[in-house]
Each structure stands twice: as structure tokens, then as C-alpha cells.
Design brief:
Two copies of one chain form a homodimer. By secondary structure, chain A is of the alpha/beta class. In chain A, the strands form four sheets. Chain A has a seven-stranded mixed β-sheet with strand order 6-5-14-15-16-13-17. The first copy, chain A, is globular. The mean pLDDT of chain A is about 90. Chains A and B meet through strand 13 of A and strand 13 of B. Strand 13 of chain A pairs antiparallel with strand 13 of chain B, so a sheet runs across the interface. Chains A, B: It comes from Gonapodya prolifera (strain JEL478) (Monoblepharis prolifera). Chains A, B: Pathway: Cofactor biosynthesis; NAD(+) biosynthesis; quinolinate from L-kynurenine: step 1/3. Chains A, B: Its EC number is 1.14.13.9. Chains A, B: This is Kynurenine 3-monooxygenase.
Chain lengths: ~475, ~475
């Protein structure tokens, strides 16, 4: 019997994980509760596009699927800050020109599923929902279409079943799991901006657009079809105050006057009410595995608020890190050789241990970045600091790397990112103090010299 | 149709809540998954006795059931600290002689169930486990003995179903619930000390006995039958190092030499291996209600580590606070009049809001007290501080109340306890600084005077 892996969830992370597992030569079965995205229409209102950066690309590269994807992304080289008067200001993400990339969730998911299915040892089943799981025996029951139940016996169960993960719930029943889920008081709604009448993007497509409003914000990401997806993030209370079409239109006209004509008043009001209002939750937990039998990755392990654009990046990185650890324990072996339960348990425990500090750090940073996006980007001190950090990064590229660059344009483990950021912030602050002190001393010295000179001159004059 | 309340869980809190609900004239149905404790033998190993203090007593008083209970408790007036050399030192809980009370869980549970069943409008069903819950319609399904299912329709569902509450899980599916569960790295095991050969307690029964070991500890609570229940709390790693009977015995002989002869070497080793090892978890969440339909209380809402002896006290207080809020909204009315859904939803939301800061405070304090019990009680600074606080409490009883007294001997809301404690700690520290400074100045002045006198004297002498 070949070693069999059952992946619960065929979303982005589940599909990529299937490719990783397939390359080990193991038998891979992916069970997804929703229908095949390739035969379904896009559902508006649920993070249509995502920001893909270094970590996701690296994870895809490792299994040779990044090239194709990079052909249909829209690179965004910076933030475009929209002011109330309609003026805009570009803030590049990187002084070296590095970009993050807007990518369509549906297209990426379809592509990764197709790539997975190219492997003869991968099978994907849609509309199959996990209904029972016995993690000790590895026996799972799925409910398929027409309520038909399917029995599955797996050597290893991978939970890639998202924020409300059933695999995680099952692990939680068996281990002493630390678990924390926190909702923020803000919700979101997605809106849509069509191309202009001449068929082009209505705003600069190579930016992530932000309308910072301190206590809330709207953002927009470009799509390859020349449309933009707008997302309004706002306290639930504010949503509740927008009950009538008139209130919504007034609100947009007052707060986003440049957006209303671009979306169209009627369209805007219609989609605002039609599209679902999403809630924002973050989840931290540990461990991520149950013995040799189960491990969960992606949102199941670390749902985060979307403000650093790292949800998918971190989920894809989970796959890379997990398989690097498996490689370390079993060697890079595509023969399908089954690992011993003990070896596998050790590897999965190591994964839980190694991944926890990184994953919790990005969950926290994602929350931190909400403040930065809706508020800090309008602060001149923040702006100066960013500039100084950027220049220093050019001067001493290994010593000072801006936080955003470490998160989005490197594979430095998130926990190390945090450590370095704290160190360089302390260093920058000390340097700034020294600089200010130095400037003050110099100014004083110069003033005194001038005064002395004056005194000397007047003495000279008086001598005359 | 009378207003019907379904209480899930007939443990301590569920049974008391049934009495509270019965007094409103509502129809009360209690479903408990375990068997009737009155027809079962006591199961050793799961918190046989508990420390009952002011809050639990007050909550029972409100429904007239405290008097009987107080007859069979064993009062404990302080901690008895056991040193390695076998010497003991008593640390009273209160300078006013207030006590906490050791009470048997099983007896208390049986009594409260019997009291609840005295009300004609209360029915208790044992061996009925919640299997389905539709909180919107109020329809519940229980699985009874022989896998028979029972359908229940309730106007209000009260979850008193403990740390792994199913009512809470169901509420969590419907509201944006913040939820946090954290296991500590320590586990526990219960041991048993028989009466002496002359039929008496082998240690002072009016103390809670502690063997503080800095990184772990053992405690003992007296039972009315002249036995003691000992609980060893220890890091899991330490448990894992005790694999053989010899290792266990060596460990006890080395660390608890006074305990070994009292328990008996053979008995000690046997129970150590036979009794289950319990884990310690704390849970914080909010809200505690789902609209007008469900509310959960006790461990379901706030499991805590047992180190402040407040788990049951806080759970009973939940009942008191909940019903004070219901009284406020509907008046004190025993006619069974059904409340309107809106009114009830408002009252339950208010309960969630009011109770959250108190409950999370005691969850944190319980964790803090572990450090105090296993370590601080051996610190002379801690000891002096306690003494000073005690004296000040006698002098200015309203201004300074020791933390332990506020928690255990008052009904001051826990969050206010924390606030007052922080304020009085700051005040005590300032006062101590002033006192030390004052003493230093006085000492200096006196020294200088003496020196002056000496100088004057020597001058006088030299004049002669």
C-alpha cells in the first residue's frame, strides 16, 4: 500500500500542498467542500484578488509553478495615497523598485489545482465536506453530493480547510492546544470599478490605492481585466449607520469624492448593499500537528487580518517550511517510501515548534499594519522615517532593511524580521538622538564663535 | 405555554442556576451527561474537594441554600507552609479570622440537585448528552441512555456544561466570539491521606497545607471524614521523569519526607500511578450570550486554573449577577411571566458586558496565585508586605484591604479588586519609600547630633 495523504481543503494552500506532497511520490487525495472553481462563476465579495509577494513566489518556485503565475499578475510598486481633495501621492514599497503583485484568487486556485492534477498520484474531489474524523486511526468520513458518504483511510491528514478548520477542531479534542481567536470591531465590503470608456484602468494600475481615514480606510487592487476591486474596511458601527441608499451615497460623496464618478453612483450603492459584509478575525494556536497523523496549515493555523497581504504568502510558506523539515528527516525522496510513524511525528512536532513564533509574529504585524495603512501613511514623521530607512538600506543593505521589505521582499523568518526591526528601530532612534545632539552642539559652537568674533571685533573697534 | 429554560449541565453551577431559575416561576429542565451523583461512587482523582468562600456563600444565600452547606464544611483559617525539615508555619488568610471552607464537590452537587428538585417546576435528567443545538429555533437534541434521542424546545438555553462546553461551541458558530484557551505546562494528580490510627486528621484540619517548591507545589485540603486530599501540581516534564515506583517513592522521600509516612509508601505509589493526571487550562471569551436564546456560565465561560480557589465561587457568582440583571430588567417576579425576546436579549447582552472584565480578571489572578503559592509564600519580603497590609487593614479597613481578602472575603467585583489592589500597591510603595527616607533622615540627624555633642564635649574637655 502506498503512503496516502488526505488533504482537507482544495483552496490555494491545499492545492499547493498537494503539489508538494505529490513530488514525494505519496498518494494524494484532496477533498474540497465547495464546487470546482473551474466550473463556477466568480462570487463577488470575497477577496477577489490578493497581494502576492516574495514568500508565496518562493514557495511556488520550489515546485516549479511560479513562472506561469507571474505572467498574469499586476505588479504594484507602491501605495497611492488618495486625499480628500482628489490629489494622490505615490509611496514606493521599495527604494530598489521591488513590487508586490495583485493576483486573482480564482485564477490562481484553478491553476494550482490543474497543476496538482497533472500528477498521476493526485486526485481532487469537490463538494466533499468532512463530517467525521478519527485522527487516531486515520479514518475520515466525507459527505459528498446527494449526501452520499465517503470513507477515507489516510496515513497523514493535512488540514488546509481555512479559518473554521474542522481538522484543527479535531486536533483540539486530542491535544492540549493553546488557541486564541479574536475578532476586530471592523468589517469589510468589496466594491468594483469597471474600466474606463476607452477600456483602460481608471487609476494607475501599478499601485495599491489607499484612502486613509484614520479610523477606517478603503483600498483598491488592480485586476488584469482593467478593473479594480475596492475594499472598504470600517467599524461595524459605521456600517450600521449606513442604512439607506441615500446615506451610502452621501457617505461616499463626502469621504471618497474621487471614487463615486469612477464606480458610478448607482452601481456603488447597489453593490454596497448586495455584497456580503465580511468580518475580520485572527487566530493563533499551537501545536499544528497531532502525532504522526495530522497537521494543519494556512488559515487553519493562523488566520490573520488582511492588512499586510501576507495571509496567502504565509500559507504558501507553510508548505515550503513543512517540506524542508520533511526533507531534513527523510531526505529528498520521490520514491513514495512511507516514513515511520515515529519519524513523521518528530518531523511534524518540529514543524509545530519552528513555525509557531513566525506565524504568530505575522498575525500581530498584520494587525499593526492596519494602523499604518489607515493612519500612519498620513503622518510626516512616519514619512521621514520611511525615507531615512530607505536611504540607509541603500547605504548599508544588510544592516538596515525596512520592515515592509523584510516582510514582503525576503524570506527572513517572520520572528527574525520582528527582532531585526526592533533592533534597528532602537539603533535608528539612538542615531537620530546623536544626530540631533550633534547638530545642536555644532549650532551652539558656531553661535558662540560668531559671538566671540563679534566681541573680538567690537574690542578691536573699541581699541581704535 | 410557560416559559421554558433548558440548562445544559447539572454540575455545581447548573444545579444552583436551576434553583435561581425555578424561583422565577419558569419551567426548568436540567440535562446532565453524567449519571446521578447520588447513585454513583465517588471517583477519585478529580478535585474531590473545593475551597468555598464569600462569593459562593453569598450566591447560595440569595436562594436560601447556604445554611445547610455551612454545616458540613471544614473551615481553613490559613495556609500551613511545610518546609523540607518537616517544620510548619501558619499564615492566616485574614487578620480578622475569616476562613475559606473545604467542601466536598460530590456532596455539594447532590445537595444542590436535591434542592433544585424540591421545586415542582424543575426536572433533572441524567445521562443525557447534548448532540444537536439549533440556537435560533431553540431546538435541542439530547442523546439519552441506550442512544435514545430526546427532542427539547427551550425558550432559553443555559450552558453550564463546563470547560468543553457544547453550548459555547454552538454560540461560537453564530456570533463573532473572541475566544482564548491556554494550557499551562503543569499537570496535577490527586493523592489521599487516611485518618490516623486513632481516627483523627493527621495534620491540622483548619489549614490549607502547602509544600511550596518554587517551580511546583503540593497542597492538601481537609475532608469532614478526617481524611485529606492532596494535590501535586508539577510541570509535565517532571511527571514524565517519574516512570517507576522507585522513582516516585524516591521523589516523595526527598521532596516531601513528612508526607510519606502519613500517606504510606505503598498507598502513595499506587494512587500516584492509578489516578488520572489532570491538565490545567484557562479560557477567556466574550460574549456569553446568543441573542435572547442562550447564555453560558461557570467553567463554560471562564475555566481557570485552581490556584485561587475561585472557580466555583466565580461560577456561583455568575448565577447571582445574571439574576440581578434579570431582576433589573423584569422585576423580581415569580409568576413565571415570559419576558419578551427583545428584553431578554438586552438583559443577556448586559450580562455579557458586565461580567467580562470581572471574569477575565479572576482568570488572570488565579494564574498569578500559582506563583504566590509555590514560591512567594517562602519570601520574607512577601511575608512582611502581607503583615503590613494586614495591620493597615485593621487601621484603615476601607482604604487598605489585602488582595486575598478582597477576592475571598468580599463581593467586590473582581475587576474593581484588581483596580484597588494596583492603587494600594502604588500607595504602599510610595509610603514605604517615604518611611525609609524618613528613617534615614532621622538616623542621619541623630548621628550628626551625637557627633556634634561629641565635638562639643571634646571641646569642653580640651578647654579644661
Amino acid at each position: 500500500m502506498p503512503f496516502s495523504v488526505c488533504i482537507v481543503g482544495g483552496g490555494l494552500v491545499g492545492a499547493l500542498e498537494a503539489i508538494y506532497m505529490a513530488k514525494r511520490g505519496w498518494d494524494v487525495h484532496v477533498y474540497e467542500s465547495r464546487g470546482d472553481p473551474r466550473s463556477e462563476v466568480v462570487t463577488e465579495g470575497r477577496s477577489i484578488n490578493l497581494a502576492m509577494s516574495h514568500r508565496a513566489i518562493t514557495a511556488m518556485e520550489k515546485v516549479g509553478v511560479s513562472e506561469e503565475v507571474m505572467r498574469w499578475v499586476v505588479p504594484m510598486k507602491g501605495r497611492m495615497i488618495h486625499s480628500l481633495d482628489g490629489s494622490t501621492a505615490s509611496q514606493p514599497y521599495s527604494i530598489r523598485g521591488e513590487c508586490i503583485n495583485s493576483v486573482e484568487r480564482k485564477r490562481l486556485n484553478e491553476f494550482l489545482l490543474a497543476e496538482a492534477e497533472k500528477h498521476p498520484n493526485v486526485k481532487v474531489y469537490f463538494q466533499h465536506r468532512l463530517s467525521e474524523a478519527n485522527l487516531d486511526s486515520g479514518h475520515l468520513v466525507f459527505e459528498g453530493p446527494d449526501k452520499r458518504t465517503v470513507d477515507v483511510n489516510a496515513d497523514l491528514i493535512v488540514g488546509a480547510d481555512g479559518v473554521y478548520s474542522l481538522v484543527r477542531s479535531n486536533v483540539m479534542k486530542r491535544v492540549r492546544m493553546d488557541f486564541q481567536q479574536t475578532y476586530i470591531d471592523h468589517g469589510y465590503v468589496e466594491l468594483h470599478m469597471e474600466p474606463s470608456s476607452d477600456g483602460n484602468w481608471q487609476m494607475d494600475p501599478n499601485h495599491l490605492h489607499i484612502w486613509p481615514k484614520h479610523s477606517y480606510m478603503m483600498i483598491a487592487l488592480p485586476n488584469p481585466d482593467k478593473t479594480f476591486t475596492l475594499t472598504l474596511f470600517m467599524p461595524w458601527d459605521n456600517f450600521e449607520n449606513l442604512k439607506t441608499e441615500e446615506q451610502v451615497l452621501d457617505f461616499f460623496k463626502r469621504e471618497f469624492p474621487d471614487v463615486v464618478p469612477k464606480v458610478g453612483a448607482e452601481q456603488l450603492v447597489k453593490t454596497f448593499f448586495r455584497n456580503p459584509k465580511g468580518s475580520l478575525v485572527h487566530i493563533k494556536c499551537k501545536p499544528y500537528n497531532y502525532k504522526h497523523r495530522a497537521v494543519f496549515i494556512g488559515d487553519a493555523a493562523h488566520a490573520m487580518v488582511p492588512f499586510y497581504g501576507q495571509g496567502m504568502n504565509c500559507g504558501f510558506e507553510d508548505c515550503r517550511v513543512l517540506h524542508e523539515i520533511l526533507d531534513k528527516h527523510f531526505g529528498i525522496d520521490s520514491s513514495g517510501k512511507p516514513p515511520s510513524p515515529d519519524e513523521l511525528a518528530n518531523a511534524l512536532s518540529e514543524y509545530s515548534k519552528i513555525r509557531y513564533p513566525d506565524v504568530t509574529t505575522i498575525v500581530d504585524l498584520a494587525m499593526y499594519n492596519y494602523g499604518e495603512m489607515r493612519h500612519l501613511v498620513t503622518d510626516w514623521r512616519y514619512f521621514i522615517r520611511k525615507k531615512v530607512e530607505g536611504w540607509l538600506h541603500l547605504l548599508v543593505p544588510r544592516t538596515v532593511i525596512p520592515l515592509y521589505s523584510m516582510v514582503s521582499f525576503s524570506s527572513i523568518p517572520y520572528s527574525e524580521v520582528m527582532q531585526r526591526w526592533q533592533n534597528q528601530t532602537a539603533w535608528l532612534e539612538r542615531t537620530a538622538e546623536v544626530a540631533i545632539l550633534g547638530t545642536a552642539v555644532t549650532a551652539l559652537t558656531v553661535t558662540l564663535r560668531i559671538l566671540n568674533t563679534k566681541v573680538a571685533v567690537s574690542k578691536l573697534l573699541s581699541l581704535q
